[in-house]
Write a structure and sequence with these properties.
By secondary structure, the protein is of the alpha+beta class. About 35% of the residues lie in helices and about 20% in strands. Strand 8 and strand 9 form a beta hairpin. About 30% of the residues are buried. Bound molecules: inosinic acid. Inosinic acid binds next to strand 8.
């Protein structure tokens, strides 16, 4: 029967299983509809058996790196009952030889012209006229290989993501039952979103996360301490921003063993000897109340402003009053592969005589960046990010991470 011979023409193969049969000449297994079934605990053993047989048959070619990939490799995941295996191979040159060696095991080679995917060489295993497995030959450094393994491991390690993915597949297969491309696009979006590299940002401050995620963009996902399941308050006992940032990143690195970063920011006013500086959050006391911190800052500045001219009494005058010069300084401490890297961002500006604006956080209502007349609290996040100290430090962090993750 045809199902036991190699595939020689396009009428011999229907690689996608949801296309309706329109020819009597296709083998049964190529046109059968394949339905998603509940997870079958016998799948891993089946995959192991296929692997063992493959390694034996291909021993002359020195192939040993075979991975069970795809949905059947994730315990608990509903899937099409077809085992997917991936093999790394130094080159596709011996593919005809491989096809010959695998023929007796009922692995059918799907020629590139039919498969249409140059990044792989593809085989289908047929048992009792049914497709039982796929074999993907991939080259070293194949992005497909890395992605497949990352996504598989992500689902294995994240029960809630597994649940979400199951739900998504079920919804999509109903929504797009006639539109395979839409189905695949929606699935791909979930997959690429899931396997984005992540890094822990040692904070629970939603403003900071939002600002830094905006700088980093979609390539890298930031997770907060809370999202990482870490519920501790890391002390900031030191007298420099650098030392406090290090304290936070090192603490999280010790707890998680993963790459992470922290930041510490201070508002530095030279006419106050650099105050509030490293004490910015607790300037007016341990309760970290923004209003009280701002009040203390404004009172101190009023006391040293030249009394005669009262230059700080109007917002515009305050912008040229050198006693009201200030800067935000952000220090990021990144622990990357066990090594610490610092990034600094500075935003120069002035302190207003009174809080203005509703947005932002912390000292934003009294801080006007150089070149502006509005306070940070009067700006959208995008506008603030044109000047922001945190953004400048984050941009350097991103440049560094890109140089590290670009292949
Ligand atoms: P920390 O980095 O969380 O220790 O923040 C130090 C203090 O500076 C806190 O009171 C923050 O509210 C304040 N702060 C940090 N970043 C900003 C900012 O971008 N705008 C205004 N205040 C900030």
């Amino acid at each position: 029967s045809k199902s036991n011979s190699d595939i020689k023409s396009s009428s011999d193969i229907k690689p996608e299983n949801d296309i309706k049969p329109d020819s009597d000449t296709w083998p049964v297994w190529a046109t059968e509809p394949v339905l998603i079934v509940p997870y079958d605990p016998s799948w891993p053993a089946k995959a192991a058996q296929y692997k063992e047989d493959l390694i034996k048959s291909l021993s002359s070619l020195g192939i040993h790196n075979i991975e069970h990939i795809g949905s059947t490799a994730v315990p608990g995941l509903a899937a099409k009952p077809i085992i997917d295996l991936a093999v790394l191979i130094p080159s596709f040159d011996p593919i005809d030889e491989i096809a010959r060696l695998l023929q007796p095991l009922d692995w059918h080679y799907v020629p590139l012209e039919l498969d249409g995917r140059p990044e792989r060489r593809f085989f289908v295993k047929v048992e009792n006229d049914k497709r039982s497995a796929h074999l993907h030959f991939l080259l070293p450094n194949s992005p497909v290989w890395k992605e497949k393994l990352r996504f598989r491991d992500y689902l294995i390690n994240n029960p809630s993501a597994r649940e979400q993915y199951t739900q998504l597949k079920m919804n999509l297969s109903q929504q797009h039952s006639q539109d395979r491309e839409a189905y695949t696009a929606a699935k791909t979006e979930f997959i690429t979103g899931s396997i984005r590299p992540r890094i822990i940002f040692a904070t629970n401050n939603a403003h900071k996360v939002e600002e830094i995620q905006a700088a980093i963009g979609a390539r890298l996902e930031i997770i907060t301490l809370r999202q990482a399941g870490i519920d501790i308050d890391i002390p900031e006992p030191h007298d420099t921003l650098e030392a406090n940032a290090t304290e936070k990143s090192m603490t999280i690195h010790r707890l998680t063993g993963t790459n992470c970063f922290s930041e510490d920011t201070g508002l530095e006013v030279p006419s106050l000897g650099g105050e509030p500086g490293v004490k910015s959050a607790r300037y007016a006391g341990e309760d970290r109340a923004f209003e009280k911190n701002i009040e203390k800052l404004l009172n101190k500045l009023a006391a040293i402003s030249p009394a005669s001219a009262q230059p700080a009494s109007t917002p515009s005058a305050s912008l040229t009053d050198s006693t009201r010069s200030a800067r935000f300084r952000t220090v990021i401490s990144l622990i990357w592969n066990g090594q610490e890297h610092f990034f600094e961002g500075i935003c120069n500006g002035h302190i207003l005589p009174a809080p203005t604006g509703e947005g932002g956080f912390g000292y934003d209502p009294v801080f006007v960046p150089e070149g502006e007349t509005r306070s940070f609290a009067q700006m959208s996040m995008e506008e603030k990010n044109l000047y922001s100290h945190r953004r400048k430090a984050a941009d350097q962090l991103v440049t560094f991470l890109q140089s590290q993750t670009s292949n």
